[in-house]
């Protein structure tokens, strides 16, 4: 047999070596790619698991954008507590106490009721509660609804009369507990709420009308208009009104505190008609409000800097507003002027808490147990004060 030329053998050897090298390279590349793909898949899976866990935690605790418990970063301190009507009917709360508060120098108390999908910590973050409390030198109390009482942490303003009364009584017990333990001006307790918290704030004001110096509902449905979730949805969309006759009998001639309503003009969750219905309810039920008249021109338009413009209408008595309606242009179902990273919060709107404080300074004082507060038509001492 003829021998193959040397160059052919060399070519064969080189080809085999190249093939082996290519195979080895492909194996290495394949392993590297497999490792990279595996790592990418593992990272994606880990991220998905983390997101699923976060979604599950949110679903279980009912808070859409959780926030850490508030801590003191300046003057004043945050306290946490738990109180109620007994071991089976209690709620947690957060309380901000300014440094200047003492028995010899008591301060006003603002009670803030969060909305659905929120808790005390997230609502404190959304409203910038501590910052405003420091500048106003006041205490801020944030009761917290439990997920056991409502899976979405809504305050139960839309249940049976018995259940609404029980929850209102529980909240009132927390407020009275804090008032008894802290240096609070008893005639200067103000009540504010967002969404379901706004409806519950109005409910509390109607059940304990002489206990609050003023009440604020931000984006809340008209109170006493629903006994179940279906009726609550109807009320939120403007299709149900309150039982005025039953409320009149329950009030027995007592007068409610001055009322502030803040509502976004583009709110589709709780339509703005609810604010108008709450104004009509106050005018219908309370003697002092019945004599009030809307301000000349039916409102004034205000815009501060680049924030959303808003319209203010006052119903005045003796020259002072006893009802104020603020409608914020372009605001949906969100706390006006709230923290950008919180759900149900619009940083572009005017600061709702500051709007409330201005109203407290201007409105007459009806709901007071002190002799000074009982003089009808007399305005309260300013809540915005230092030292």
Automatic annotation (TrEMBL):
Entry keywords, A to Z: Hydrolase, Signal
Q: Give the Gene Ontology MF terms in alphabetical order.
A: hydrolase activity
Which InterPro entries does this one have? AB_hydrolase_fold (IPR029058), Esterase_phb (IPR010126), Plant_Biomass_Hydrol_Est (IPR050955)
Keyword Thylakoid: yes or no?
Answer: no
* Gene3D superfamilies found in the cross-reference section: alpha/beta hydrolase
The source's domain of life comes to Bacteria
Give me the ranges of the annotated region Disordered.
Answer: 367-387
- Name-wise, this protein is Alpha/beta fold hydrolase
Whose protein is this, by species? Uliginosibacterium silvisoli
């Amino acid at each position: 047999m003829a021998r193959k030329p040397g160059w052919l053998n060399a070519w064969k050897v080189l080809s085999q070596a190249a093939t082996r090298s290519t195979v080895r390279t492909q194996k290495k590349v394949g392993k590297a790619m497999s490792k990279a793909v595996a790592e990418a898949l593992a990272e994606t899976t880990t991220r998905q698991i983390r997101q699923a866990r976060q979604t599950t935690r949110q679903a279980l605790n009912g808070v859409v954008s959780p926030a850490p418990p508030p801590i003191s970063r300046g003057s004043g301190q945050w306290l946490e507590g738990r109180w109620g009507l007994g071991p089976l009917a209690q709620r947690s709360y957060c309380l901000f106490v300014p440094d200047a508060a003492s028995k010899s120098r008591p301060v006003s108390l603002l009670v803030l009721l969060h909305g659905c999908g929120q808790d005390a910590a997230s609502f404190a973050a959304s409203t910038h509660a501590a910052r405003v409390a420091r500048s106003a030198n006041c205490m801020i109390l944030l009761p917290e609804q439990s997920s056991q009482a409502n899976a979405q942490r809504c305050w139960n303003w839309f249940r049976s009369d018995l259940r609404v009364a029980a929850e209102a009584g529980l909240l009132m017990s927390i407020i009275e507990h804090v008032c008894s333990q802290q240096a609070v001006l008893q005639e200067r307790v103000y009540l504010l709420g967002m969404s379901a918290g706004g409806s519950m704030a109005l409910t509390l004001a109607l059940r304990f009308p002489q206990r609050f110096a003023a009440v604020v509902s931000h984006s809340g449905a008209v109170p006493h208009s629903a006994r179940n979730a279906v009726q609550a949805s109807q009320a939120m969309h403007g299709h149900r009104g309150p039982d005025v006759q039953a409320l009149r009998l329950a009030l027995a001639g007592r007068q409610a505190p001055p009322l502030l309503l803040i509502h976004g003009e583009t709110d589709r969750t709780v339509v703005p008609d609810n604010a108008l219905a709450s104004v009509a309810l106050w005018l219908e039920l309370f003697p002092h409000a019945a004599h009030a008249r809307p301000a000349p021109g039916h409102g004034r338009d205000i815009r501060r800097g680049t924030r959303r413009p808003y319209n203010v209408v006052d119903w005045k008595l003796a020259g002072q507003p006893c009802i104020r309606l603020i409608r914020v242009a372009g605001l949906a179902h969100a706390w006006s002027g709230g923290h950008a990273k919180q759900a149900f919060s619009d940083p572009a709107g005017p600061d709702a808490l500051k709007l409330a404080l201005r109203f407290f300074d201007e409105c007459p004082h009806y709901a007071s147990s002190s002799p000074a507060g009982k003089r009808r038509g007399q305005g309260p001492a300013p809540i915005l004060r230092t030292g």
